[in-house]
User: Fold Small ribosomal subunit protein bS20 from Chromatium okenii.
Amino acid sequence: MANSPQARKRARQSEVRRQRNAAQRSTVRTFIKKVIKAIRSEDKDAATQAYQEAVPRIDRAARKGLIHMNKAARHKSRLNAHIKAMA
Assistant:
């Protein structure tokens, strides 16, 4: 356990950041799941709308280092490919 005041503060800060990161990561996953659900229901308009809502969230998570930039690009590319294949 942290003994010095500095170490105790760092432990507090780490916990706050961990919880914030977990919440943001969960939000990104939820938005991705909404797109997948719309794709599976074969509703192209809903899928497109959900995709447009998800992209800024994915980009923001990548910019903040929550997920890797390549992972964000991969998610966007695959979701978009599924939506385009619905036509």
